Here is the input.
Amino acid sequence: MRTDENEFDVIIVGAGPVGLSAAIELGRRRVRCLVIERNDRVGYSPRAKTTNVRTREHLRRWGLADALRDASPISPDRPATVVFATRMNGPLLARFENAMNASKVRNNLYSEEAQWVPQYILEDVLRRYAQSLPGVTIRFKTEFVSVTDNGNQVAVTIRDLDSGKTYEQIASYLIGADGARSAVRDAIGATMTGMGSYSQNYSVIFRAPDLAARNIHEPALMYWMVNSDVPSLLGPMDESGLWFFMATKLAGDVDPATIDPAELIRRGTGLSDLDIEVIGTDPWVAHRLVADRYAKGRIFLAGDACHLHPPFGGFGMNMGIGDAVDLGWKMAACLGGWGGSELLASYEQERRKVHVRTIAEAVTNFESTSNQLVQPALEEPGAVGDATRREVSEIILATKVREFRTLGVVLGMRYEDSPIVVDDGSAPPKDHFMLYLPSAHPGCLAPHLWLADGSSLYDHFGEGFTLLMADGNASDADAFLAKAKALGVPVKFLTLSDDRLRGRYEARFTLIRPDQHVAWRGDALPADADKLIATVTGAPNTEPRQSASGSPRAKEAELQNSV
Here is the structure.
């Protein structure tokens, strides 16, 4: 490891959830990181509100799941429900319980339920933990200027915004987690392709202490207002009267600068005399964009820097954190000396398919907002109004369920055709946007189980690879484990007394990656352990094992192997 306090292995641009997650994933693996952020702190607006089950599983792995739960300003007793109504004082149209799988009832499919929490709260929890890691340094009011890739390192020019002075920082890698207007993306010449700015929307953060009492519907996480006046949605940001409001798909001739946000909220909710304090406004447009490249040399993009889509389904921030995890463990492996030249190349190959699939789902959800659900006579009294509301209710239940039952997207992602995953010839599980079928097919997320002692199966996985044995003689793994140790590849051998494992994993042995995805499975470990290890670590058999920076990292590799 580098010992000088001003020397770093990785520089991360952006201290949002993605950049902080990358710093945590690297910092926990003893990689020295510098995170630079042009703002003076994290967390200015709620933006994302859903921390989904997969992100919560990463938080559990980092020891932060309870910390986020405790930090939430949303009561743990608030039902995980989404309500559709004409207005906050109008007829109920439909409701979805356990939206986003946020119910606290344990489910064998995952180790952590989703959580409705403002993004700035998540950012604060991540920041506090990242700053507690010995190898992580965060500098606010610090701006990325430019980068030069010298082949075996990057030279990053950085500006201190207080003093205006610039300085150069050397590192092995640069990660651009600097959002939709990414300067790092521009630096590598990447461009966003797809459909941009195709819908105008308007978000408001406001305080209305009386809104909860005047709401005739049950407490919920989110309310969709289906009316022809202001089709919109809103939800609580705490339990003391702070709310968000979103008017969707404004007419193209509407100038956001002319909008009275308080009046917009009153019209949308039907509460014409509601006392409102506007905290902030955010006009925004929907995009469907993916970068044409995610990396160039030693420079990588993650999160909104390489993919953008409408915020319907709660995928965006969570998908970016998934980028950080995938990139983080691979970068740490290369720096630790046991990751090969193909490992980081697999980042874009694996994540791009996940992005394309998930973005398509978000766009489908966005095609059915309150604007599309409105019908003539929806708010009329009498038989005609009742019939219209029944019709709209059926449409909502049929079309919007996929937005709030998302396990097929969130947990069903898999790294098909990855160069660091060994196909076993079996058929992959059926791909479905809602239905999640746990499978140990190579590339899939390792199936979860709650164990008899109350722990999660995931709690027993190692920080590196995990070799899970469902049954049989433990000595059968000796040769493989010895070879991995000799190569400096961290592998934890895990045997558990649980008869369900064989049926769940459909193999005696399963090799699970640091990100909890399956790298290989089989009833017998291969006689040629070198080949398997070389494949899953991205190192051809003939490739020497050394650090990606070109300098010896024997001590670091030893530390990695001890994790």
Remarks:
- The chain has a mean pLDDT of 92.
- Residues 74-116+199-285+375-406 form a domain with the D-Amino Acid Oxidase; Chain A, domain 2 fold (CATH 3.30.9.10).
- The first strand starts at residue 10 and ends at 13.
- Residues 345-366 form the longest helix (22 residues).
